[in-house]
Amino acid sequence: MSEDTYYKDHWVDIEAERLERYEAQFVWGPRGNKLIEPAAISTGQVVADYGCGPGYLSVELAKRVGPDGHVHAFDINADFVERTTRRVADEGLAERVTVTHLTTDMLPLDDDCLDRLVVKNVMVYVDDPLSSFREFRRVVKPGGKVHAVDSDFYMAAFDPIDVDDWRHVLDAGIHAFRTPAIGRKMYGIALGAGFSEVAVEVVAAPDFSGRMLSFIKNTAGYAREGGKYDEEVVERVVDVASRAVEDGTFFALNPQFLVTATV
Questions:
Q1: Fold of 3-40+104-151+178-205+255-262
Q2: pLDDT tens string 214-239
């Protein structure tokens, strides 16, 4: 993988260990309901799940739109496409979900064909966020909404990990994120893409259980891939976080920016 395009390439080709971490990390739960609530998904709507991952959100959206609605699920990773296809079939929802393997930044959809487009924790990786928002605006009907959820990784906080140690790991692995501060930027990007109204909420739910441990381990892996890191520091960050999860002292906070843009 080229360091210049690693932020995208590492989603096209995902090693087995990281793939399984995502499988566990993306399981849908009550916290997810709060993250997509502003999108106002309802029965009969046609909705896109842009960057569907292993398909948990696609299943949730399909349940919400009901038999008269439809979900278009998109991802650039072939394994995710396969898992999403299998997951919606296992849930008996295959007829209301179309799963597509994306190979370009353009969506294979007609203009003004969607009621909603949901993009959860994906904008941080796209080539050109403004261009992507313009593409989203193209496919969403007048009055429809694009709902984007994403992080601002410079705002993430962990304890008992040393602050300087974590910043070293993040800086060494930053090539894995195209726009690591995307959370704070999406409001301006949505306005620049021509949306008529843009609403923003920030949700910050503390993690005491270790859900964010996968993110820490993934970022440690990105640091090692980049080659400009101190192995002692990387090992210490993972070790401290892992032991804190085991002994119940782990704390993490990763604010999620909820940007709902109306066409």
A1: Rossmann fold (3.40.50)
A2: 999 999 999 999 989 999 999 999 99
- Write the burial class of residue 220 (CB in 10 Å: 0-12 exposed, 13-18 middle, 19+ buried): buried
Q: Could you tell me the strand order of the sheet in which 97-101 lies?
A: 97-101, 70-75, 46-50, 114-120, 140-151, 256-262, 197-203
Displacement of CA 34 from its chain's centroid (Å): 15
List 2's β-bridge partners, or say none.
Answer: none
pTM for the model stands at 0.95
What integer is the mean pLDDT of 40-64?
Answer: 98
Query: Which token pair is 29?
Result: 């739960």
Contact 145, 133 (CB under 8 A): no
Phi and psi dihedrals of 149, rounded to 5?
Answer: -120, 125
Nearest Cα to Cα of residue 119 among 186, 181, 64:
186
- What is the distance between the terminal CA atoms of the chain, rounded to a whole angstrom? 37
Return d(Cα 109, Cα 102) in angstroms, integer: 12
Domain boundaries, the chain: 3-40+104-151+178-205+255-262
Q: Is the predicted pLDDT of residue 54 greater than 70, yes or no?
A: yes
Q: What is the mean pLDDT of residues 27-44?
A: 95
Rounded to whole angstroms, what are the CA distances from 158 to 44, 127, 153, 235? Answer: 41, 28, 11, 16
Alpha carbon of 19 to those of 54, 162, 210: distances in Å?
Answer: 9, 28, 18
Q: H-helix or E-strand containing 182?
A: helix 182-192
Average pLDDT, the chain: 96
